[in-house]
């Protein structure tokens, strides 16, 4: 199940794998501006902003399309106040694992609010969504069990399956027919099915209604990762499961505090018994430091602002306007209304050069190249925020149209 790419050939000694990968990186890096691992110097979250480039260069304005802060909450004064007040009360550390001294009233309140958001009985907060996904799979599954994953599911879910050591079966991306065939061959009582609600690299949504219906009919359990759906879908950002009226049919929802909620951490929302089980059985929860209470208090405030709904509506308007502008310029784009939109470019060097060229024009956008995407099919991933103005977005689309592949 471990991804085999050109750099982790099992026949190679460890040192050769390191060497081979570094040679590849250095070759693509070439002479142009390198777009990975740039240490920024701060600035406003998403809109035009001043940001220092690498080194001590001059500060300048950028339109940022490179952030998961979809609602533009990262600098909200009310969130800063919540952080400051929690800092006075709790200090900065976490004291330990949440099972022991690391659990705080701030986290307890956040868990209640997250359970409410997803119409579930309870929620468990983790130090990251990566850890939350590992926890669900490692905590629930034994080697004699089976997990069925959408082909495009997030790496954290795949890694959870590796940690569980169970049988792993992959179904074709968003293909209920393929899932149905696989479900017929498994013991549903010992099977978990996992999908992402939004596939952020592909800029598309899961076909949740038929997928959830199939899993429910089979009697298997289902996990939906709403990391890129919360804050973006639903009237007040409650995500797609809730928006589609599927909360009662999906056993486990995982979500992120570090994307639209602009803080840090992840969570599981489920029924009370499953949450209790994970608190005492999931290693990423029990054997890792808790989320700091300052972060929990800030996330709770983010959630409150998100649920007032105004920023969610602004984000939706921005997403629609970008999609329309892209269509007008002949760029390939679907109608899925996700906040991330991939722009196909081509090979690795061309993709990196396009991102660097856009940076020179004042637009920050994330490139994605092999092995994160198939070889020769590099993309630029545009992330839209409620903070962008219509003018900024139309300027960005105009510049991107100059580098992206047309339909
Ligand atoms: C679908 C999905 N799940 C989980 C994660 C991990 O989230 P976190 O950064 O909170 O660990 C990501 C991060 O990009 C993601 O896209």
Characterise this structure.
There is one protein chain. By secondary structure, the chain is of the alpha/beta class. The chain folds into two domains: 30-65 and 309-401, Aspartate Aminotransferase, domain 1 (Alpha-Beta Complex); 77-307, Type I PLP-dependent aspartate aminotransferase-like (Major domain) (Aspartate Aminotransferase, domain 2, 3-Layer(aba) Sandwich). It contains 14 helices and 14 strands. It has helices spanning 14-29, 77-90, 105-117, 129-140, 155-164, 176-184, 208-218, 240-243, 272-281, 283-286, 293-307, 310-328, 348-360, 390-401; strands spanning 49-52, 59-65, 122-126, 146-150, 167-171, 191-196, 198-199, 204-205, 221-225, 252-256, 266-270, 340-346, 363-368, 378-383. The strands form three sheets. The chain has a seven-stranded mixed β-sheet, with helices on both faces. Strands 1-2-13-14-12 form a five-stranded mixed β-sheet. The protein has a two-stranded antiparallel ribbon with strand order 7-8. Helix 3 (105-117) packs parallel to helix 11 and helix 12 packs parallel to helix 14. It starts with 13 loop residues before the first helix and ends in a 6-residue tail after the last helix. The structure holds pyridoxal-5'-phosphate. Pyridoxal-5'-phosphate is lined by residues 128-130, 133, 154, 156, 196, 200, 225, 227-228, 256, 258, 266.
């Amino acid at each position: 199940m471990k991804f085999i790419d050109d750099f982790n050939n099992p026949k190679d000694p460890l040192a050769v794998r390191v060497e081979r990968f570094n040679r590849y990186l250095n070759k693509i890096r070439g002479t142009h501006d390198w777009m990975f691992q740039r240490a920024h110097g701060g600035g406003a979250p998403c809109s035009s902003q001043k940001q220092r480039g690498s080194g001590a260069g001059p500060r300048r304005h950028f339109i940022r399309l490179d952030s998961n802060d979809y609602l533009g909450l990262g600098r909200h004064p009310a969130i800063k106040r919540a952080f400051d007040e929690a800092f006075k009360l709790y200090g900065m550390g976490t004291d330990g694992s949440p099972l022991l001294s690391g659990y705080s009233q701030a986290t307890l309140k956040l868990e209640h609010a997250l359970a409410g958001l997803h119409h579930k009985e309870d929620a468990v907060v983790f130090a990251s969504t990566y850890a939350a996904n590992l926890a669900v799979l490692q905590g629930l599954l034994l080697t004699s069990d089976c997990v069925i994953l959408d082909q495009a599911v997030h790496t954290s879910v795949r890694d959870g399956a590796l940690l569980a050591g169970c049988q792993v079966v992959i179904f074709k991306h968003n293909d209920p027919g393929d899932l149905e065939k696989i479900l017929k061959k498994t013991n549903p009582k010992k099977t978990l099915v996992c999908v992402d609600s939004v596939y952020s690299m592909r800029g598309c949504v899961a076909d949740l209604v038929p997928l959830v219906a199939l899993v429910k009919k089979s009697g298997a359990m289902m996990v939906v990762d709403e990391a890129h759906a919360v804050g973006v879908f639903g009237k007040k950002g409650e995500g797609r499961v809730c928006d589609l009226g599927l909360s009662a049919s999906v056993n486990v929802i995982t979500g992120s505090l570090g994307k639209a909620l602009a803080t840090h951490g992840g969570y599981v929302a489920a029924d009370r018994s499953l949450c209790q089980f994970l608190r005492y059985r999931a290693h990423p929860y029990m054997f890792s430091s808790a989320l700091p209470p300052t972060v929990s208090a800030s996330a709770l405030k983010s959630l409150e602002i998100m649920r007032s709904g105004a920023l969610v509506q602004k984000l939706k308007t921005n997403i629609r306007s970008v999609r329309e502008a892209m269509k007008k310029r002949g760029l390939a784009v679907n109608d899925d209304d996700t906040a991330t939109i991939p722009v196909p470019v081509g090979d690795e060097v061309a993709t990196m050069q396009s991102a660097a060229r856009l940076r020179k024009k004042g637009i920050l956008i994330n490139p994605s190249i092999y092995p994160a995407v198939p070889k020769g099919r590099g993309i630029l991933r545009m992330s839209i925020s409620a903070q962008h103005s219509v003018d900024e977005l139309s300027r960005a689309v105009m510049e991107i149209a100059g580098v992206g592949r047309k339909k």
